[in-house]
Amino acid sequence: MxxxxxxxxxxxxxxxxxxxxxxxxxxxxxxxxIEFVLTSVGYAVGLGNVWRFPYLCxxxxxxxxxxxxFIMLTFCGIPLxxxxxxxxxxxxxxxxxxxxxxxxxxxxxxGMMVVSTYIGIYYNVVICIAxxxxxxxxxxxxxxxxxxxxxxxxxxxxxxxxxxxxxxSRPPALPGNLSHALNHTLQRTSPSEEYWRLYVLxxxxxxxxxxxxxxxxxxxxxxxxxxxxxxxIRGVKSSGKVVYFTATFPYVVLTILFIRxxxxxxxxxxxxxYLTPQWDKILExxxxxxxxxxxxxxxxxxxxxxxxxxxxxxFHNNCxxxxxxxxxxxxATSVYxxxxxxxxxxxxxxxxxxxxxxxxxxxxxxxxxxxxEALTLLPISPLWSLLFFFMxxxxxxxxxxxxxxxxxxxxxxxxxxxxxxxxKTYVTLGVAVAGxxxxxxxxxxxxxxxxxxxxxxxxxxxLVVISCIMCVSIMYIYGKCPSxxxxxxxxxxxxxxxxxxxxxxxxxxxxLPGHPDDAGIPTAPLLPDLLALRLxxxxxxPGSGPPSSxxxxxxxxxxxxxxxxLPPAPTAAESPQAW
Length: 579
What we know:
Layout lengths: L3 H7 L22 H12 L2 H5 L1 H7 L6 H26 L14 H31 L41 H6 L7 H10 L14 H17 L4 H11 L2 H14 L4 H9 L9 H15 L5 H6 L8 H34 L11 H12 L5 H35 L2 H5 L1 H16 L7 H11 L3 H18 L21 H8 L7 E2 L5 E2 L3 H9 L1 H4 L9 H4 L26
Helix pairs in contact: 2-10, 2-15, 2-17, 4-15, 5-13, 5-15, 5-23, 6-9, 6-17, 6-19, 6-21, 8-16, 9-17, 9-19, 10-17, 11-15, 11-17, 12-15, 15-16, 17-19
């Protein structure tokens, strides 16, 4: 039977401590829990959900890809997401400060900062291109709709140029419709592709030939960084208010585009191409690798942002509930975005008389070439273009907020004195200016080459390596089997068991809200304390010697001067058998 002291420990207090402070007045907290959930959703739901997942899904077996995708979500995504939220919430530190638990692994925190820096640099360049397209859509006719512009080549063949297929440079089309002519045009390039390559980017012929800086893109990059800085000027206090709009309005736009897309001719064909399962694909290792990489990239695991955002939670927040809500919302958004994308692409393929695979693309090719061209076929195309690129801007900003806050919080927590806490706005400004300067080469004529290079290698296998090292350091280096713990430790999973975190996940719903602590105050489930009890077993066991770290000697959230007391040493009859 669990005694009063054990109940208190499960609710976040120890026998010598009547209650613990739920708020961190020094660093600050979220205004309310909705702000944290919306910020985390905005962080997880980004451009990859729109331009990467649908393409991976149809390339890797359609509906069959959902099987490895949700397997990876269940056994990799949710446990890692929950572990990072618990880690940051318990420690109330950024991705560097949390590694006081094991300073020899602080390099993991630096690795997270490097990943966030790489992604933050090129991510805002993508946002600035979306800004450029958004401003360019404020015209009666979209500039990439026809081949009659000065930058177009003789090979240009627009889907709307039915009477002049190749800008007058080729003989008239044979009898038949537009699709017949286009199928016989072997060197066809769309006006949207030429607008992207020859006008927006003025693409150079080599990655080493930087050429000139594209001033329109440079101006939009400045606008992007100014918007990000203004939204983070007061840290989570200001960004927590902005996400009420940036995290919710993309769903409004997605729904509008979905309703419009499914009413078009050929939409059903595109959706079936997206969902039709090819079960033989799931036997390929590459499919499982793509599913794992998409989970890591989409959820933001090992970027440092989850630890940072959770560090501003109140100590008694139910982060298990939040982790389940956020991860499921993220994956559901990816699936939903696939319907939006492939309904429009199916309409475009039907209009051209080609297979959907001929018009499907991913990455910048989907966002700035294929989808904009499909939008030109819709009535009032500038309106749909404005909505689409505004959605891309909001999706990008939601992720960029957390990337910048991750770097700023890591720097402020690492210095840790009162002066830098008061000057945090200047730190944010300095990081934003540095990000702008480092992004200037990506606005050159060779910038897209470097952007794709960073996108392919900055957040791919490195995330898996960082996550593995983090799990090993927490569960096997810092943690130890609770063989000499009081009976309260028996329900907890042994840290040496690979399924230890999943066992904690399965038991977490048993900790229902409303159980009073020693002071009779109802508290919420303390899942960070569950993780802490497991991780700190070595330091709380008798005979382990005096603690050597602030994280080991007292609660990170305890009131000044209120130290945690060790539980009473168990008798021989009370000690559980060693694992």
